[in-house]
Amino acid sequence: RGIVCTTDPDIPNNIIDEITINHGYNPKHRVYTVGRLDKESSGLILLTSDGRLPNSILRSEHAHTKVYRVRVDHQLEERDLDKLRRGVMIMTMSAQDRKRGKALRARTKPCDVEYEHVYVERY
Hints:
It is a single chain. The protein has a two-stranded antiparallel ribbon. It has a two-stranded antiparallel ribbon with strand order 3-4. It has 4 helices and 4 strands. It has helices spanning 15-22, 52-58, 78-86, 95-98, and strands at 32-34, 46-48, 89-92, 104-107. By secondary structure, it is of the alpha+beta class. Helix content is 23%, strand content 11%. The chain has 2 domains: 1-66, Pseudouridine synthase I, catalytic domain, N-terminal subdomain (Alpha-Beta Plaits, 2-Layer Sandwich); 76-115, no CATH class. The chain is globular and about 50 Å long. One of its GO terms (biological process) is pseudouridine synthesis. Belongs to the pseudouridine synthase RsuA family. InterPro entries: PsdUridine_s_RsuA/RluB/E/F_cat (IPR042092), PsdUridine_synth_cat_dom_sf (IPR020103), PsdUridine_synth_RsuA/RluA (IPR006145), PsdUridine_synth_RsuA/RluB_CS (IPR018496), RsuA_PseudoU_synthase (IPR050343), TruA/RsuA/RluB/E/F_N (IPR020094).
């Protein structure tokens, strides 16, 4: 958490700084991320020195299915799931707009949602 999944050296707390400064890894070749995680999420992120790999996996024309497993801290209502199914508005920054501080609003694509309710009692 707290690491930005970008290789842009101008962005603080970027993933390359994380692996080089905090973990002592010094790659011989340029490193690319395969996908990304939001700054406040956690999970597995793949790194590669083959710049073709992220494009071959992530470009929309290749139509690969992406599966996300998400844990939330409250019970979801059917209307919450319907919003996800239809697509939700998000705020994001393109690389060129980041320097100008201009945020973009975009709607995510509709998706399939399966809800698996698991109750965990905490003490």
